[in-house]
Each structure stands twice: as C-alpha cells, then as structure tokens.
Design brief:
The complex is a heterodimer of chains A (348) and B (614).
Chain A: H1 35-50, E1 57-61, H2 65-68, E2 78-81, H3 87-97, E3 102-108, H4 109-113, H5 117-126, E4 130-136, E5 139-140, E6 146-147, H6 170-177, E7 181-186, H7 190-201, E8 206-212, H8 228-234, E9 235-237, E10 239-244, E11 259-263, E12 269-274, H9 284-296, E13 300-307, H10 314-318, H11 330-333, H12 337-347
Parallel strand pairs in A: 1-2, 1-3, 3-4, 4-8, 7-8, 9-13
Antiparallel strand pairs in A: 5-6, 7-13, 10-12, 11-12
Chain B: E1 20-21, E2 23-31, H1 36-49, E3 54-59, E4 68-76, E5 89-92, H2 98-103, E6 110-114, E7 127-131, H3 133-140, H4 144-150, H5 153-163, H6 167-177, H7 182-202, E8 209-210, E9 221-224, H8 225-235, E10 240-243, H9 250-263, E11 275-278, H10 282-294, E12 299-303, H11 305-321, E13 325-331, H12 348-352, E14 362-364, H13 369-386, E15 389-395, H14 396-400, E16 402-405, H15 423-429, E17 459-460, H16 475-493, E18 500-502, E19 509-513, H17 517-532, E20 536-540, E21 543-544, H18 548-556, E22 559-564, H19 570-578, H20 581-584, E23 587-591, H21 600-611
Parallel strand pairs in B: 1-8, 2-5, 5-6, 6-7, 10-11, 10-12, 12-13, 13-15, 14-15, 19-20, 19-22, 22-23
Antiparallel strand pairs in B: 2-4, 3-4, 9-16, 14-21, 18-20
Helix pairs in contact in B: 1-5, 1-6, 3-7, 5-7, 6-7, 8-9, 8-13, 10-11, 17-21
Classes of the chains: A alpha/beta (348), B alpha/beta (614).
Bound molecules: thiamine diphosphate, iron/sulfur cluster and magnesium ion.
C-alpha cells in the first residue's frame, strides 16, 4: 500500500505572506464585551486582508480606555500612547518626520470631542494623511462613566443623571472642516466596519471614522443612546460599502444600477451599494443635510458619509522631499561652510 | 574698605568734565509705529562702521502703533555692551513722555528735541538742541504720507553733526538698510542731510561727547539672537519646526523660515528638506515636535513663558517617553498682558522641573548671539544623544536686539544622532529592549517607526513601563526606570556646556550669573576694581544640570553673589538645592526685575552695599 502524506492544513496568509496572528497585539485589558475590543479585531482583519506591512504603521492615541487599545493590535508596529486629547499633534509630527508611515490614530469621544476638540478641528482642516478613529461610547470609560460631549440630549447615566446639552457631531464637523474620508459605523457591524477600514487604508488624506462603541460597564443600559440595543434598533445604514483592494479585480456581483464605484489613490475601489436613498458621498451638502435629518429622527446614520479623493493632503502641500525627513543624511540637512560664510558676509 | 552710604539705584558715576571720546549712550524716545526703527538702525550701523563697538536695545510696548518706544544706543571703546543707566544724549520725539524723559536725565546731558515740544524751560542743568522737524521735512518730502517715516532720519543727521559721524557712513548704512530701494536711500539721506545742515548753521556743539573712527569692529557682524538661533537650527540639520506666534520668539521661527527656504531646498527635486508648521497653539506645537522627534526628525519649537506653561504636560511626556526635542524659550516678563515685550530671566526654575511628577530637564543658557548659534547646534545633538527635551534659555534682550559679534564658526563635529538602532543592527542583535541601560550611562537604545524589522517596534507611553517598554505598574519596574533616568541626568552633567570663568588672583568674592546678565557683570567687575579696588571672580553658568566645576567654584570662594533678572532669585534657589550644605550659606542674591535689561551700575552698587560693614 502506498503511503500517503497528509498535507498539513495550509496556513492562511495574505499577499505579503503574513498570517492573521502577525497582526495581533498584546492581550486586551479592557472589559469583556467592550466595543473597543471589536474595533481592534476589525483593525487586525483589515490590515491583514490589505496586506499592510506592520513596520509601516504608527499607532497613535491619546488617553482613555479607547486610547489604550493600540497596545492590543499590531504588536509589531510602533505605538505612542500620548496625552489626553493631543493625539492629533503627535500624529502630525510623526507624519512630518516620516511621510511613508501609515498613521493609525485611535481616540475616544472624550479624548476627541472635549479636551481634544481644538486639535481635532485643526487636524481635519489640514487633511493630514492619517486614519483617525473615534471609539465613541458617549462617556468617559476610564474615569468611570461621566458624560462626554457626544452623549445625546436626554440620554441617561447609570446613576440616573440626564444629559441636558446637545451632542457634538464629529462627522459633521469633520466634513465641514475638510476631512476627506468620513464615515460612521458601529463596533458590532463587522461587515460595514471592515469595509470602511479597508477603504481607509487606501485613502491618502484624513480619514475620520466615528465608531459607536458601547461601554458595557458604564453606558450600556436603558436610557443610553450608545448601547448595543439602542444602536441595533436605530442604525440607518446609508448604503452597503464594499471594498476591493487595488490588487484584486473588481467583481461584478453588484447590480450596476444600484452601485457607485469610487477609485481611491492607491487604485483600490470602493463600491457603494445604494439602499433606500440615492446617495452621492462626494456631495458635502447632502452629507450634512442627511446627518441632521437622521439625527432629528433619532437615527444613527452609518456608512461612508463623505469622500473627496482629490483634495491635496498636508504633506503634498508642504512640498516635502519624497524620502522621510527623519533619515535624511547630514549632507542634505547641513548646508556647506560656504553658505555660512555667505550669511556672515552679509551681516558685516 | 571704608564705610559707604549708598542706596541702590541712586549713585552717580564719578563726574567727568574732560572731552569724552567713543564712550556714550543715546536714548531715542519715539512713538511706536513712527518709522524711527530704520533711523535707529542706521545710526547704530554708522557708529559700527566707524569701528566703534556699539549695541542697541529697543524698549517697546506691546502694541503696533501709538505707544511710547525707547531705543538706546551705547558706543563703548571698552567694548561694554550692557545697557547703561546714564543717558548722555536724549532724542525726545514723543510729546507724551518728553517731560518725564528730560527730568530723568543726569545733569550735563544733551537733548535733541522736536522744537514744538518746548522742553527748553524744564531745567537748566542740561544742554538743549531744539530742531524744527516738521518745517525741515516738508521741502524734501512732498508726499505727506511718507513724511512721518522720513522725519526720524533728520535726527540721525543732527547727531551726525553733533557727534562727528561722517555723512558717508550714514549713506553706507542706508544702503544696507534699503538694499534694493535706491529711491528710499536717497530720500532718507536727504532728510539726514537737512538735519546735518540745520545743525551746522544753528546748533553749536556744547557737550563733551564725540565719536572718532577707531578699528575695533573690523570683521564683526551684527545680528539679533533669534536670527542667530535660527541659523544654528539650520546648520544643526533641523528638519521639523512647529510653533505658535508669540513675542519675543516669533522672529526666531520667521527667520528660520527665511533661511531654510534659501539653504535647505534639495537641488535635485526642488523639494524641502524641512517642514515648518504654524500650529494652532503651543500644546499642538510641542506635541507635533515630540511626535516628530519620536519618529526621528530633528525637531524643535520656539516660544516664550506663556507657551511654556501650555507645554508643561507634554514636556513631562517627552521626558518619560524619552523623545528628543529642542525648545527655544525666549524669556519675557509676565503672563498675558503682563509686560509681554519686556525682558526677564523668569523661566529658569519653571523649566528646570517643567511638568508633574518627578521631571527635570536639560537647559542651555546662551549669553551672546554667537552662543545662540552654537548652543542651538549643541541642543539638537544633546537632545538626540540624551533622548530628552532640551531647553535653550534665551531672552527678549538677546533674542530681539541687535548685537555685535565675531562671525559664527562652522560646526566642527558631525551631527550626533544618538543611539538609534537600524534594521541591520537588529538583524545582528536579534532584538532590543528600549529602556535597558546597556551602557551604564542611563541612555537606552531606540528604534524609529518605519524600521523594517519584526523586532523593531516598541510602544511609547508615560512612566508606567518596564525595560522592554511593556506596560507595568510594578514598584520595582517604576523605581528601576526612575533611577535610570537619574543616571542619564548625571551623565548629562558633564556633557552640557561647561561654565566659563573669569578669575581674579586671590579673591574671596565670586559672582555667578548667566545669560544676558553676563554683559552687566563684566562691566561691573571692572567698575568694582577701578572704583572700589574690589577684585571679583566670575563663573558664568551655561547649563543645567550644573557641572561639577560650578560647585568647585562656589567651594573656592567665601561669598557668592548670584546675579539674575527675576524677582524670586530663581538661579539662586536652584543652586541652593544643589550645592553642599556647608556651601549654601555662601550664596547671596542680586536681582534686577524692571523689565529692562540689567546694567552694570546696579550690580556694582549692590555688591558694594552688601560688602560694606553694616
Ligand atoms: C489632562 C488630563 N485630564 C484628565 C485626565 C483623566 N482622564 C483620563 S481618560 C479620560 C476620559 C476618556 O474618555 P474617552 O476619551 O471617551 O475614552 P473612553 O475611556 O471612554 O474610551 C479622562 C478625563 C487625563 N488623563 N489627563
Ligand atoms: S470601562 Fe467601558 S470603555 Fe472602558 S474598557 Fe470597560 S467597557 Fe470599555
Ligand atoms: Mg468614551
């Protein structure tokens, strides 16, 4: 009898030969069931599926439960857990120093919409090439559940306290100020979030994703508008987002009549399958109007809200050399002796 | 030494009756925005061109137009360039302050003034030179709008005649001032000439002061400290500068922007080898600079006291994540609308320990424009060598005023990029631990984001980490890290710029000073020697942490005067924290905190008073 060798099950690898475990990070120390953990999982999947080289990613965050999460994905990427509300500055500096990095920022709703709102709005204006994710639970998780500035009017804390101030819509702000890829999703919507993240990795401008991410410990009860059950009941998807990376052929299983195809900078394609509205994500006014309307209806509008693949990003605007400033050799950064002599002569 | 009855600030210099050559001070009192600035610069340059050491200081208000401004010029054949207390020539152009300006002069001073101010009857122990500026300006400048600007040039001509400045020097200085505008040169020269001719005909010279060509400025340059620091940054290979406008530091970032556009555009690609970003505030400015430093850029920011306050949290993060970054602090007085355009050395204590928890920082303290240049370069090297924020402690007087200097030396050492591991190094080593003290100097090895190696990455965060940069709250890990940071600081003690000494042979008395106070000290030492036969040794501190030599100096002397420009004796206190217990009692304090640069006479009087038996 001929012996047969049993083939070992083929390891699942991506196009650069890495497996999903190569994108894992440390073990999460967040609460079990925290929405932030699901977002970390989607980030891992998106980077794996896109074949992102981990060494090219810089993970950046402020302070909060959400801002801790970069330690729990992409363990072989550099990370910087900075100070509360200031991740945009750290990200800006990082990208100025090394334009080849993929900056992946994670923030919270407190970190962004309260203490960090100043840096947030200026980041959006600059259209810095980076991905900015708000893990939005409507409260301060790490400091035990106080309201944040994205908490909805009338929503209730566990302690019974009712929020009497209107929320800041970070997506509307981002769109108004100049971010070029703006979306909203829900940590529990695996499919949509993954597609949005993959699209984000192909975009070269500011990506701003507000991801509703329930805090199971402080903000997942009745009366909270950022709880699992509330979001599941009130999610109004704009359309179905599908994403085809630049290295795959565009499949044709979308009904052409109801699909919009958008080409991103790196040649990838975003396919938007329309549901009930005839939605064009490149129209700023439509995006803002729809956001307001659904907000008034108590709905949470999700999907890719706005996209501008044309606007130059901050690094292009600064006309920086193509190689990272960080590693320029001395000969390129220290002018020769004769340059100093020339200036000294002028000052005599 | 005999007893003296001096009260500080009121002593007069010994009376002099003879003809005084190349030793005088001029104060020009004008209104902000009146175009006096170029007239003042031209006057300063003309004296410089005559070979006479000269310095100029602008005392200006925090507004754009309409408030009083004073500009003082000091010419000194001895090379003294500190502010001088006594004014020999006053140019009174500001109606609002004229009377007060005149009354504050010493007997024998001269006053050039706008005739219509009618100052002639205020007192009779001074010399008056009334000039009808408005009448003189009309025929040479038919354009009424320009008149206001050109009018100031008339006093340059008056002073040229009275003091003996050749008119061709005024012309040369004007050509330098208005490089590509020959019509402006002509118009302004005409105004100066009118002043000269008017004086020749109507105002005989009656004062004792003259300027005469000598040869003490050959080869020297004139530059402000902020431009010098900016040049230093350019030659230090600065790659990222993020800043937020604030007087008196804005001109540093603006000069930097001009220089890099000229010298740091890559010829092949026509692209920039730098990024300069005006941030939304100082929180962002320092955050960006730290992000850039972490990612491997030579990054910097420039600010002043209020900005430093906002940077405090990030300064601590920079210290604990061990990120190189250079912070230029051009010190000034007070918060918000304190005296924002006045000088001080007021951030010494604050910056030494900026942030919360246990933090301490490296500070370099330049005294001259040349040191603004050399220390800027050293700061970038030290920041990367020690992987930590480095503060360069300039001040408004140094940063915004024009100073004479020898030309700056081209850096003689290559850039020191510190302990950075590349992917090749990692290949060889098989990995690394970010916060491990491999070499015993307290400085770990770092990798830059983007290093292509699976073991290159580490996670930067505050103080809660072990040697592998993994999160840890274990007491042993925390203590281990804190103690290593201390070792690093101790290593820096002997690497930062050493103090500079000027020692008298056998002296019991020592002076410790730093920064711009230096210029008053060197002059005061001469005054004390000549007028009081007091011999003083001097230690100019140039950095924090203090080098051992500073402590040795204190040990060698019986009484140490720490002289500085703040109310709370900040350096004095910092020294008290650090010197040995038996040396603490030697320390005495002299402070000058008027918002104007310190002068030698104040120091001399104070030392004499403290040295006199009570
Ligand atoms: C300057 C400063 N102020 C306050 C805090 C305390 N603090 C830590 S996390 C946090 C709120 C975090 O909320 P969010 O960004 O929504 O993150 P979450 O924990 O909800 O994910 C606050 C106020 C801090 N760390 N620093
Ligand atoms: S407290 Fe809330 S936000 Fe923080 S980890 Fe727990 S569930 Fe998540
Ligand atoms: Mg939150």
């Amino acid at each position: 009898m001929a012996t047969t060798t049993v083939p070992s099950p083929r390891k699942k690898v991506n196009r650069i030969g890495l497996g999903p475990s190569d994108y894992k990070g440390g073990r999460s120390t967040l609460c079990a069931g925290c929405g932030h953990n699901s977002i970390s999982e989607r980030i891992i999947e998106a980077c794996f599926e896109m074949g992102i080289e981990p060494y090219r990613v810089a993970k950046l965050s402020g302070i909060g439960c959400s801002s801790k999460s970069p330690a729990y994905f992409l363990g072989s990427s550099h990370g910087f857990n900075s100070v509360h509300g200031r991740m945009p500055a750290i990200a800006t500096g990082t990208i100025l120093a090394n334009r080849n990095l993929i900056a992946l920022g994670v923030s919270g709703d407190g970190d962004t919409a309260s203490i960090g709102i100043g840096q947030f709005v200026h980041l959006m204006r600059r259209n810095l090439p980076m991905i900015y994710i708000i893990e939005d639970n409507g409260c301060y998780g790490l400091t035990k559940g106080q309201f944040s500035a994205t908490a909805d009017l009338g929503s209730k804390l566990k302690t019974g306290v009712i929020n009497d101030l209107p929320p800041i819509d970070t997506c509307a702000l981002a769109i108004m100020l100049g971010a070029t890829y703006v979306g909203r999703s829900f940590s529990g919507d695996k499919r949509q979030l993954l597609a949005l993240l993959k699209g984000a990795l192909g975009h070269r401008g500011t990506v701003m994703l507000d991801v509703i991410s329930p805090c199971v410990t402080f903000n997942d009860h009745e009366g909270s508008t950022k709880s699992y059950s509330y979001v599941q009941d009130h999610d109004a998807p704009l359309g179905e987002v599908s994403f085809v990376p630049f290295f795959e052929d565009i499949t044709v299983d979308y009904d052409p009549g109801t699909t919009t195809e958008i080409r991103l900078h790196d040649g990838s394609h975003l396919l938007l399958k329309k549901l009930d509205v005839d939605y064009d994500p490149t129209n700023k006014m439509d995006a803002l109007r729809l956001l307001t309307e659904s907000h008034d209806k108590g709905e949470i509008l999700t999907g890719l809200l706005y996209l501008d693949a044309e606007r130059p990003n901050f690094i292009d605007m600064l006309n920086i050399v193509d190689v990272p400033l960080a590693t320029l050799p001395e000969s390129m950064v220290r002018p020769p002796r004769q340059a100093l002599d020339e200036i000294m002569e002028e000052l005599k | 030494m005999g007893t003296m009855d001096v009260s500080i600030g009121e002593t007069k210099a010994p009376p002099r009756e003879e003809r005084v050559v190349n030793d005088l001070s001029i104060q020009i009192a004008t209104v902000n925005g009146s175009g006096s600035q170029s007239a003042n610069t031209v006057l300063l340059r003309s004296i410089f061109q005559m070979g006479i050491p000269v310095s100029g200081k602008s005392l200006f208000p925090s507004n754009i137009a309409g408030l009083p401004t004073w500009f003082t010029i000091r010419a000194s054949r001895h090379g003294y360039i500190a502010r001088r207390k006594e004014i020999d020539f006053l140019v009174a152009m500001n109606p609002e302050t004229a009377a007060e300006d005149v009354m504050s002069l010493e007997a024998g001073a001269s006053i050039v003034y706008d005739e219509k101010l009618n100052l002639g009857r205020l007192r009779d122990d001074v010399i008056y030179y009334p000039v009808p500026f408005d009448t003189l300006v009309v025929p040479i400048c038919p354009n009424a709008k320009l008149r206001k600007l050109v009018r100031s040039m008339i006093y340059d001509g008056v002073l040229a005649k009275l003091l003996g400045i050749p008119m061709e020097e005024i012309r040369t200085a004007l050509e330098k001032q208005f490089k590509n505008k020959p019509s402006a040169v002509d118009l302004n020269f005409k105004a100066a000439q009118i002043g000269y001719e008017y004086t020749e005909k109507n105002l005989p010279q009656r004062s004792r002061f003259y300027l005469d060509r000598i040869d003490l400025t050959r080869g020297k340059i004139i530059i402000d400290g902020n431009s010098a620091a900016a040049l230093g940054a350019v030659f230090a290979g600065m790659t990222v500068c993020t800043w937020y406008p604030i007087t008196p530091s804005s001109s540093l970032a603006e000069a930097l922007t001009r220089y890099v556009k000229r010298f740091r555009i890559d010829a092949k690609s026509s692209k920039a080898t730098f990024a300069i970003v005006q941030a939304e505030d100082e929180l962002a400015a320092i955050g960006m600079a730290i992000g850039a430093g972490w990612a491997g850029a030579r990054s910097m920011t420039a600010t002043s006291g209020p900005g430093i306050s906002l940077m405090s949290e990030f300064a601590g993060l920079g210290y604990y994540t061990e990120v190189p970054v250079v912070i230029f602090d051009i010190q000034r007085v007070g918060p918000s609308t304190g005296l924002p355009t006045r000088t001080a050395q007021g951030d010494i204590l604050k910056n030494a320990f900026l942030s919360h928890g246990d933090t301490k920082h490296l500070m370099l303290i330049p005294s001259s424009v040349e040191e603004c240049f050399t220390m800027a370069i050293e700061a970038f090297d030290l920041a990367e060598e020690f992987q930590t924020p480095v503060f360069v402690m300039s001040d408004l007087d140094l940063g915004m005023n024009n100073w004479m200097s020898d030309p700056f030396p081209y850096p003689d050492k290559p850039l020191n990029r510190g302990k950075v591991l590349t992917s090749k190094d990692l290949e060889r080593l098989g990995g690394f631990e970010r916060y491990r003290d491999v070499d015993g100097d307290g400085i770990g090895y770092r990798t830059l984001p983007g290093t292509r190696h699976p073991k290159a990455a580490y996670f930067a965060r505050g103080s809660g980490h072990n040697e592998k940069a993994a999160y840890s709250e274990r007491p042993e890990d925390y203590v281990n890290n804190m103690d290593r940071l201390n070792r690093k600081f101790e290593t820096a003690r002997q690497r930062v710029p050493a103090p500079v000494f000027q020692e008298a042979d056998s002296s019991e008395i020592g002076v410790v000073a730093y920064g711009t106070t230096h210029w008053a000290i060197v002059e005061s030492i001469d005054q004390l020697k000549e007028e009081y036969d007091l011999w003083i040794s001097y230690c100019r501190v140039r950095a924090f942490p203090f080098s051992q030599q500073v402590f040795d100096f204190i040990r060698r002397h019986q009484r140490i005067y720490v002289v500085e420009q703040n109310r709370d004796a900040q350096m004095f206190r910092l020294l008290r924290m650090e010197v040995s217990t038996e040396d603490v009692r030697k320390l005495r304090s002299i402070r000058h905190y008027k918002g104007i640069p310190i002068d030698a006479r104040t120091v001399t009087d104070e030392i004499v008073a403290q040295e006199s038996p009570k």
